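Protocol step 4 of 5: obtain the predicted structure for the target chain.
Materials: sequence only (see below). No template structures provided, no constraints applied. The aim of this step is simply to have a reference model before the mutagenesis design in step 5. Sequence pasted as it appears in the construct record:
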Amino acid sequence: MPSIDASERVDPSCVRRPRPHMSSRVVVLDLDGTLINTEQLVDEIVGAVVLDLDPSLAPSCVHDALEKVRGTRPLDASRAVVRALNLPISGEALLERTAPLLNARWGEVRLMPGAARLLAHLDAAGVRYGLATSTPREYLASKMASHGDVLARMACVVTGCAVSKGKPDPEIFTRAREALGVEAKACVVVEDTPVGCEAARRAGMTTVAVPSIRDRGAFEPWSDVVVHSLYDLELERFGLPAFTDWLSVGDGSSDRVLPVPPVVMRGPVVKGFGRGSSVLGIPTANLDVTPLKREVDSLAPGIYLGWASVRGASHAMVMSIGWNPYFDNAKKTIEPWLLHEFEDNFYGEDLAVVVAGYIRPEADFTTLDALVARIHRDADVARVMLSREPFVETRALLSCDE
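Step 4 output (C-alpha cells):
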C-alpha cells in the first residue's frame, strides 16, 4: 500500500471549529446522493456522453451501468462503465470528457431533502459529524460552492484522493474514524449506495442506508437499517439524540407529520394513469413533473399534506410524489388529491399547490384495499393537521381569488 501523508488524510478545506459535544457517538456522512443531489446530474451528463460514443446502446443499459458504479471514485467509476458497456475509449478519456461538463454545472446541485435539517439537529445536539466522500479534493470545492458553510461545519473531511483504495474498501471510513478520534463502534454512517454501505460495514461501523437507487435489496447485506429518506432517520435507534420536530396527530394513533419548508408548484392538470377514480375511487389532479423538476427534487418521495388552488378557490389536499410502489411506476409522478367534491374534472386547468408537511414514505401495500385504506387515513391526517399551526398559515402562500 502506498504511504499517505498525514496532511492528505483530512482535506485542508475543512475548518475545524471548537464546539461542545455531548454525544459519545459520531456521524460519518457520504456526500453525493446523501447530502447533495448530484446523482441525477451525473446520470444526465455521463449518460449523454456515453450515448454519443455509442448510439446503439439502450438508455436503460446505460442507466443500469451508471447505477452500479454510484459511490465509487470518478476514475474508478469511469473505468467500470467503459468495461461494462464496451466503449471505444479508456476510463481516463471518458473522465476527461465528463469532468469539465460536470464542473460547469455543480452550481445547480441542491442539498438532499432533509439534509439541512439533519445537520442543524446534529449541531444543536452537540453531535460531531464528518464527511467521507469518494469525490476527489479538486472537485469538492466546486461541488459545495453553493452550499454555504456545510464543509466548515464538518469535524473532518476525507476525500477520495486521500485513500489508496476507494469504496467498497473500508479505508475511507477508517481514515474518518481516525480523524474523529473514536472507535469504529462509536460511528454511525449514513450512505446512499451499496458500495458505500459495504465499505462502512467492513470498517465495523453502524450503517444506515438511504438508497439513491430503487433496488433496496442491494443494501440489505451491508446495512443495519434501510430508510426511505433523510426525513425518516430515527437517530435514537443508534444512541443519538432524537429529532423533536415531528408533530403528533394526537388521536391515539402513531400518525405524525413533519413540517417541511413550504414548496409551491403550479401547472396545468394533466392526465395520469387513469386509475385514481376508476381503480382507487380517489380522483387525483396530476401535475407534469418535467417543468417542476427543481421543486420535486427538493422533496423526498413520499406522501405530503398541503393546500391546492383551482378555479379561484383553495382546498386541503394530500399528495404523493414518487413512483407508487404498488403500481411500480416507471417514472416519478405528482398526484394531488384535493379533499373537496367537484362536479367535473379540470384537465388542462391551472392548479397551484403548496406542500407543507411530510406524512410518511411511499409503501408497497400487499392489497389494493390496504392501499386505499391508507390513502383515506392520509386524508384524515391532512384534514386534522391543516387546521393547526404551522400548516394552516401556509394556505396564504397560494395566490388565488377566493
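Step 4 remarks: The chain has three domains: 6-36+109-238, 39-107, 247-397. DSSP finds eleven helices and 13 strands in the chain.
Proceed to step 5.
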